[in-house]
Amino acid sequence: MKIIPTIMSGGAGARLWPVSREAHPKPFIKLADGKSLLQHAFLRAALLPGVEQILTITNRELFFKSEDEYSEVNASGVGCTYLLEPMGRDTAAATAIAALYVQQIYGDDAIILLFPADHMISDLDAFRAAGVQAIELASRGRLVTFGIDPEYPETGYGYIEADGQNVLRFVEKPDLAKAKEYIAAGRFYWNSGMFCFSAGTMIGLMQQHCPDILDQCRRSLVEAHQSNVASGTQLTLDRESFALVPKNSIDYAILEKAENVAMIGCNIGWTDIGSWNALSDLIEPDGSGNRINGDTVLVGTENCFIQSSGDRLVGTVGVQDLVIVDSADAVLVAHKDRAQDVKQLFTQLKANGHEAHSLHRTVHRPWGTYTTLEEGPRFKIKRIEVKPGASLSLQMHHHRSEHWVVVSGTAKVVNGEQELILNTNESTYIPCGHKHRLENPGIMRLVMIEVQSGDYLGEDDIVRFDDVYGRQ
Description:
This protein is an alpha/beta fold. It has eleven helices and 30 strands.
């Protein structure tokens, strides 16, 4: 019997701005231990018995970043398969795609353990034990969910009412009075959003309860483009077909309608990282109740969460009950009681067209990263890092010229009709309208400084002629 852990990774993580952005969503947030939520999810998945392959469902724009994250922690060489969505269609579509793919490759009896990438679980032994229980139930045709033993009357989670292992009903996020009733009743559990089922069981349930989602997902999978990548298999779903998939959650589409739902009640140190308050709970408080991540100096400060990013020091004097998050290009200051409302700030940034809702100052690309160091009228300065063996597209700009200076490593450059090899401290000038390409032929990262000048310096001033990553 094949066990296929499946990680759902994506979303905007609006409540965790400014660290989370649309192009750098919540699963990629680094915790105090240096690992991201996505990396923790991968390591949990690899702990399950007999796992040889991990499936990841994510947006196609996040593929290269996900691949880099996995490569840093995949010491055991577990196989990776990526199912890439052209746009989000909620968890019912992700579940259907996973079930159809696993059925196609491994058959009806293969077991899928499906969970989000943006949760944190601290008791890995308990998680593995709960997973083993769920796999056994799923092998007997049950659709299994994981109920978390509630620690307090939380209003931000949905609940499951259960009689032993049998689910009686799913309930929405309650108000405080109702949450207290649930805790007192002793038969309600937090809904973790993690599930376990056989591929055949899920496909049968979807055929019965949401055939429109299943059928359209099947079309997008049949028309998908498959390619082999360094870490495994990449399957890009067909955009036109997938755009027609109805949006729905797996809870509404299946769980609230199915009659064979079982629940594993567990205490696994589970946290849904849905706000800065939840993330701060992962850090031990100091004697004044402050939870700190980064370089800070505090005077007369109590019950605050403070995270400093990069090289900046954060200092506070005479404040309490605040969330303070510093990033390279934005700072958040919020009262802890309003941490959920950070989403409103994110929404306003997006409505205003502010770049800070989507991108960080450091932007990840398939070939490496670029960091905007400074910009002003008619100029922009970037630090560019290119991974060993990687290359940018053959491209041209209509409105800007570029100066490239190699800081470290070796650069292979196409500049118009010329092909150059540049070493440390050497440079070249790319006139406006010249076709050019940058490549790192070495075994170390190539680091460069790029100075752009011109009338327009937007990232959309680019014409690609040849791109190994399939971008237009």
